[in-house]
Amino acid sequence: MAGVQVANVSRSFGAHKALDDVSIDFADGGFYALLGPSGSGKTTLLRQIAGFDFPDSGRISIGGESVERVPVEKRRIGMVFQNYALFPNMSVADNVAFGLSVRGENKAVIATEVQRALDLVQLGKLGGRRPHQLSGGQRQRVALARAIVTKPRVLLLDEPLGALDKALRVDMQIELKRIQREIGITTIFVTHDQEEALTMSDRIGILRDGRLVQEGPPEEIYDRPKSEFAATFLGDANIFRGDATGNGIRLPDGTAIAAKVGDRLAGGAKASCAVRPERIRIATDAVVSDAADANMLKGKVSKRIFAGNNSTYFVERAGQTLKVIVQNTGADRLAEGQDVVLRWSPESTVLIAAG
User: Fold this and answer.
1) Given its phi and psi angles, is residue 172 left (phi above 0), alpha (psi -120 to 50 degrees) or beta?
2) To bridge 314 with a disulfide, which of 47, 261, 283, 303 should be the other Cys (CB 3.0-4.6 Å)?
3) Which CATH class is domain 237-353?
4) Which pTM does this prediction carry?
């Protein structure tokens, strides 16, 4: 296995800059998600690492070896695509064996390694079937077995679960994580699914317009986003804009919002702050029930969306629509048009410098 280092990589297609001076260190044995909107550069970066395309500038290393000009077949990369890319006229076992056959391995070695890979993905008894006889999740497991049977140094996954329905996707998330942990391979996957990135990865890199916006552990990015884009792209966030006060911001109507102690911005500077919807408490009275809830705003419920175990309330306040997510516990529901009070602690407020 090996780590991957991407240093100052740029790639343009005509006037479009798909990657703009991107640097990321993918630790050996880690599970890394590349997240971003369409056109952000995440798939382009994956293709650079795989060797399907080459950077205009910058350096890519695998296991300390510079590979930015090494062709794909010499990089020892395993790759799984969204559409599986299985050979329909071959059996499951022959699909998995394909890479080893191309290498010229002897039949005994191939048979052993194919069975080992199929056992790992829990398809050990289905080697004789054809792809059309399998479910979507089983076909994805075959594609994964084919990618890992050659013992690659790095595993790349391009929207690996995008073709599966929600229930099957959740099951495959668990399976992929189990398999990755079991073999200990450095894994980098591209996804547009925020929940998938949060659930599966050790670290997340968020890209936008070819640039790396933020990277780090999922909890860190979710709890301490560095920009409005990161806050709103990875999960929901209520964004407030105003002037920095030193330990929070003051909104245009004069309302002060306090932030976590230790967060500071120069007083008077334009600033934003983000508050996650599930961190806000909503009630019909203005009694402060917890001294820790230093932030309090009044508003009016405009809409409620029921989602089974929780509900999302949309609250209008000073021309802004705020989101509040609450668990459905059987307590009285708030009605549309009802006046409410929103409360949250300074620790739930993330300060973000303007720009």
Assistant:
1) alpha
2) 303
3) mainly beta
4) 0.87
37-70 burial: b if 16+ Cβ within 10 Å, else e: eeebbbbbbbbbbbbebebeebebbbeeeebbee
Contact 228, 274 (CB under 8 A): yes
Output the pLDDT for position 294. 83
Domain with CATH 3.40.50.300 in the chain: 4-223
Given this model, what pLDDT does residue 41 score?
94
CA angle 18, 20, 25 (to 5 degrees): 110
Other residues' Cβ atoms within 10 Å of the Cβ of residue 91: 17
Question: What is the identity of the amino acid at 87?
Answer: F
Give CA–CA dist 240/257, Å, rounded: 9
Q: Which residues of the chain have pLDDT under 70?
A: 1, 163, 261-268, 286-293, 331-332, 353-355
Assess contact for 157 and 190: CB atoms under 8 A: yes
The CATH 2.40.50.100 domain(s) of the chain lie at: 237-353
Q: Domain 4-223: give its CATH code.
A: 3.40.50.300
* CB 311, CB 208: distance < 8 Å: no
Which residue, among 51, 56, 60, 52, has the nearest Cα to 24 in the 3D structure?
A: 60
Q: How far is CA 56 from CA 59, 278, 295, in A?
A: 10, 43, 49
* pLDDT for the residue numbered 163: 66
- CA–CA gap between residue 105 and residue 110 (Å, rounded): 6
Give per-residue pLDDT as tens, 266-324. 666 788 999 999 999 998 875 555 556 689 999 999 999 988 889 999 999 999 999 99
* pLDDT in the model for residue 271: 87
Distance (Å, whole) CA 266 – CA 139: 55
